[in-house]
Specification:
The protein is an alpha/beta fold. It contains 30 helices and 30 strands.
Length: about 950
């Protein structure tokens, strides 16, 4: 029963759901929520998707109280796999069991002898690992835990304590964390969008264009999407295709109402209007943000107190990168080495998230860019300080996620320890960065000394679970210390008691022990049973002896049981108090996390800049782009010890703003194009850049059309993808855009392709209504003539050195057009057979001499002599004409014979070998002649 619209649950939550007269009621932090607004109730309604998934009990199977309890909760969560707690295991039944058995590779058993009730289970203490595997496969789980202690007499009460969907799953391991998106169509073709990271509490919302929505969804990569019912059909085709494989929840449109969303969120964030958070009245994004937040809280049965602010998704704040550009520039992920991989020296998960965001959202404010540059410079100027800061950051933990897990009631003592350890390292970082620009975010963090003092009561290395004991350090609480003393003294008392009884009874083999079923006992072997005193009361008979209990031992057992219970209760109460204190200081802890993340990302950029010789770029409000001695940051790293050939890029929106780049493949054209785009992006994210010097006029968008790929799942051929991407660029360029176009028109015939490329270049000159800066790489050398007519265009090419030994690609850009592409030379280096290369050179000479193009667009005269179709093209089929003979374009068989003959060394052959070669060549010659016969 795989369900892509389902959720996952975890038993660590403190919320609960209980039966009510009208159905079931959500209880959050001890308060009942208004049932009419419950998203969970809507999802589990009879007409909700998955309603048919409630199993039917076979008529001959008795409906026991336990099964009644199971069906009660399964009917309320039909869309989920129900994990049903029974003792030390979470059990699944019926189809849920079959599904879990197949996905998790666990044993499928049965509860009844006839095997009519399939069953599978996982240990309750290891449930997180199994939940993660189910979430990754798109399943949902409702975790029904025991809420009362088993007493052996009455049925244990059980309740669904948490529902976690793929988008709201917050595991201990951040790599499997969920991400939630909510979207709805908005007016004038816009998309209202909210993005929520449950672990960190980051909530962003805004109404953006279709292209921006596609880019945001691609980089955010949600695991689950919330949509109003009836929406998928109304979404633009591009967005609909993009989210088709992501689990979706369809909710009533009323949940997305902007007015109620604004009211709910304004009350939540204690503001009069969401305008303070960048969301204007009536913005549909308010409804999306409200739905995402409500969904997170209701699935966790807990108030998400770590979601403390709403950030606007405004395109004007950041340099826009569309989906294609993010992929073409290898910014953050993929099989290839990425820009993120090159720049990432972060020591904390917070810093890595921050750096990733800086890469995907470069700034558009010169003032903010220079602030980041100042911070980076303050560390690059002092390598000793930089190393000290990096070492100190190594002691910091992921306080953002730790606070989020505690807020959602899935945290553990180790999350508290992460916050405590980071607070302990914080003063040292503040001292190191005193007076430095890099330390400015740290100085904005409120005083957290009281919280640090509170968390000192936590054990140095606390266990993962509270009930394991040892969460609170010794000496932190007198009452806890007293009961621990009793428990620890019990072991010594037990040893003394056993020694005393052995001496008193004269039984050297007498033993005192304990087990969970019978408690404490005195064990005496069968050979010594005649020495049993009357005060010994028989407790258990064994094969080799008897077990007894005395009144003194029973009193000790009561005292030990009482101490264990008191220790567990007191430790749990103290732990809850620590959690409460931490959540009360949650806003300050989040400020700490953001400051450390910014410092870590800054230190990462500084270390890379210092190590690789990057320079601080001058970012201006102008339109000039001047990169001198620039290097591709990723390719330079990939080359290792081999040198990278630097190049210049000189463009100006008010002057020469289009460069037509020609030259051979494999000479570095694509690297040159990508390099320019990456350095603009790095400059505007506040990083230093690999160059001798750089000036970057503020850019609002980077567009790229690079490479050849198809999208067959969308029905798009390679050329169609090329044209779709080119159309998107031409419709959206502005005066401050930077455009990279590589090999426009390559996917069609020569004249078609050249015509399209020429027209695109002309369009970017004037009809587009803007003056973008453009790097235009092409093999259509005819386009270089445009530079003679238009002063805004310049020609450049990749330098090539031709010598008697061959052709050498210098990877250097020179200010002149190329007249050749050296495709045959590239083919030679790729290992194309010599016969093919030789024929290619012959054809190329004829094409260049006669100015004809293969493909037949010039009619019969377009075919070189000896080519396939040449004779056919010169013949007009008609009555009385014989069958047209088709000649070989490349008579490979004949060339192979000649080639083998030319390579022979007769002096090295024995007479027998010479005879064998002669026969073989004769046979090949006959075959070649037969194939060429009419």
């Amino acid at each position: 029963m795989r369900n892509e619209n389902a959720g996952v649950c975890d038993g660590a939550g403190r919320g609960t759901t209980r039966a009510g007269e009208e159905g079931f009621v959500t209880v959050r932090n001890g308060m009942e929520c208004e049932e009419g607004s419950s998203l969970l109730r809507e999802l589990s309604a009879p007409d909700a998707p998955g309603g048919e998934k409630v199993p039917v009990l076979p008529p001959d199977i008795k409906r026991t109280p336990m099964l009644e309890q199971y069906f009660f909760w399964k009917e309320r969560y039909p869309d989920c796999l129900l994990f049903f707690r029974m003792g030390d295991f979470f059990e699944l039944f019926f189809d849920d069991a079959r599904t879990a058995s197949a996905v998790l590779d666990i044993t499928l058993t049965a509860r009844d002898p006839e095997k009519k009730i399939p069953m599978a289970g996982v240990p309750f203490h290891a449930v997180e690992g199994y939940l993660g595997r189910l979430v990754r496969e798109g399943f949902s789980v409702a975790l029904c835990d025991q809420v009362t202690e088993p007493d052996g007499r009455t049925l244990v009460e059980r309740s669904v304590v948490r529902v976690v969907t793929p988008g709201t799953y917050v595991p201990e391991d951040p790599s499997g964390e969920g991400r939630l998106a909510a979207l709805a169509p908005a007016g004038e073709g816009g998309i209202a969008l909210a993005l929520l990271a449950p672990g960190t509490g980051s909530l962003e919302a805004g109404t953006v264009s279709e292209n921006e929505a596609a880019s945001l969804l691609a980089t955010f990569a949600p695991q689950e999407i919330l949509l109003p019912r009836g929406t998928p059909e109304r979404l633009p085709g591009r967005i609909r295709e993009q989210i088709a494989r992501i689990p979706q929840r369809l909710l009533a449109r009323s949940h997305f109402d902007p007015a109620s969303g604004e009211e709910r969120l304004a009350a939540r964030f204690a503001v009069a209007s969401l305008a303070a958070h960048g969301v204007l009245p009536g913005d549909a994004a308010a409804g999306c943000a409200r739905v995402a937040l409500d969904y997170l809280e209701e699935t966790h049965f807990s108030a998400a107190r770590h979601v403390r602010r709403l950030r606007p998704l405004h395109s004007g704040l950041f340099l826009h990168l569309d989906v294609t550009t993010v992929r073409n520039l290898d910014l953050v992920e993929g099989d290839a080495l990425s820009l993120f991989a090159v720049l990432n020296r972060c020591g904390t998960p917070m810093g890595k998230r921050c750096l990733r965001e800086w890469i995907l959202r470069p700034l558009r404010s010169v003032e903010e860019i220079r602030k980041r540059q100042d911070a980076v410079a303050s560390l690059t100027e002092d390598p000793v300080l930089l190393r000290a800061v990096r070492d100190a950051l190594g002691a910091c933990r992921d306080v953002e996620r730790a606070l989020g897990r505690l807020s959602l009631r899935v945290g553990t003592p180790r999350d508290l320890a992460a916050i405590r350890d980071t607070l302990a390292a914080f003063p040292g970082l503040v001292a190191l960065c005193e007076g430095r620009k890099a330390g400015e975010p740290l100085r904005a963090v409120p005083d957290l000394a009281p919280l640090m003092e509170t968390l000192r009561t936590l054990a140095d290395d606390p266990p993962r679970l509270v009930h394991a004991g040892g969460v609170i350090r010794d000496g932190a609480d007198p009452e806890l210390d007293e009961w621990r003393c009793v428990a620890r003294g019990g072991e010594e008392w037990l040893r003394d008691y056993a020694a005393r009884e052995r001496e008193l009874r004269g039984i050297k083999s007498l033993k005192v022990g304990y087990n969970k079923v019978f408690g404490y006992y005195i064990e005496i072997s069968r050979a010594n049973l005649e020495n049993i005193p009357p005060e010994y009361s028989r407790k258990q008979t064994l094969v080799g002896g008897e077990r007894f209990v005395t009144e003194e031992l029973a009193v000790f057992e009561d005292r030990m049981r009482s101490s264990s219970e008191r220790i567990a209760a007191r430790e749990s109460a103290l732990y809850e108090e620590l959690v409460r204190s931490t959540l009360e200081a949650g806003a300050c802890v989040q400020e700490l996390g953001r400051a450390l993340a910014a410092l870590d990302a800054t230190a990462s950029l500084a270390e890379v800049a210092w190590e690789r010789g990057y320079v601080r770029p001058l970012v201006t409000e102008g339109t000039r782009l001047a990169l001198h001695g620039a290097r591709h940051p990723v390719v330079e790293v990939a080359l290792g010890n081999r040198p990278f050939t630097p190049n210049d890029v000189l463009l100006d929106g008010d002057g020469v703003r289009i460069a037509v780049v020609t030259g051979p493949n494999m000479a570095g054209k694509s690297t040159y194009l990508r390099m320019a785009a990456l350095l603009i992006l790095m400059a505007q994210m506040g990083s230093f850049v690999p160059a001798e010097r750089a000036e970057v006029g503020l850019t609002d968008r980077i567009f790229t059309r690079i490479g050849a790929r198809d999208e067959l799942d969308r029905g798009l051929s390679t050329f169609m993808v090329e044209m779709v991407e080119t159309a998107g660029i031409l419709h959206n360029v502005t005066d401050r855009s930077f455009v990279v176009l590589d090999e426009i028109g390559r996917g069609t015939s020569t004249y078609d392709g050249m015509s399209i490329a020429w027209a695109v270049l002309e369009y970017l000159l004037a009809p587009c209504g803007a003056r973008p800066k453009v790097l235009f790489a092409t093999h259509f050398h005819e386009l270089t003539a445009l530079a003679e007519r238009h002063g805004e265009i310049t020609n450049c090419s990749m330098a090539v050195e031709e010598t008697a030994e061959g052709v050498t690609f210098l990877h250097r850009v020179v200010p002149r057009p190329a007249d050749r592409s050296y495709g045959i030379e590239v083919a030679r280096r790729a290992g194309i057979p010599e016969a093919v290369l030789r024929r290619s050179r012959e054809l190329l000479r004829e094409f260049e001499t006669r100015r004809v193009v293969p493909g037949g667009e010039g009619g019969a005269g377009a075919f070189p002599d000896g080519a396939v179709g040449a004779e056919a093209a010169r013949s007009v089929p008609g009555q009385g004409r014989g069958r047209m003979r088709q000649l070989s374009l490349l008579d490979a068989a004949k060339d192979a014979v000649l080639e083998e003959l030319a390579l022979l060394d007769p002096d090295s052959l024995t007479p027998l070998q010479a005879l064998e070669v002669l026969y073989r060549l004769r046979e090949k010659s006959r075959c070649a002649l037969e194939e060429g016969a009419p």
